[in-house]
Amino acid sequence: MMKRMPFERPTEHYDERIFNIDEQICALLYQRKELSGNNPGFPPFEYISKWASSYELYEDFLKSVFGTLRSEEHFKPMVEPSGFRKHIPVLKSIEKDEHFYSITSLRQYSNASVITFSIDWDMTTDLSPNTHIHSHFDLYLGEKYDCRLTNGGSDGGMHK
Length: 160
What we know:
about 160 residues; single chain; alpha+beta; 2 domains
């Protein structure tokens, strides 16, 4: 299972004179999140160019900031499965567009469940490495469940 490395403070230095500004930044981030319904999108590059010029900031810096603001969910703390209970066979599959999608099993823990999902295809029909279309998958089970991809891999004609 992939774990996020703990963030270490990069320096001991902090200019306390900017505390109120930093707190205002946090308040504005909260306001931005609430007003947009947590779906802010990404500002047009024309806006970023204007703001960079007006506030003496680098455009690439602002692009990075707004890119990070779009991915807050990636920083949500992840539950570490503990208290293994049992394996549950699922063995459900579907074939679509020459790909075979399978959920083979579920590992149940006292605080989480881990699903094994795989995609299989006939790699002899993939003549070029660029012909395979990579897809992104999301599992949604409702608001009270947090579903995430924790690891993955590829083995010729199979993704796990």
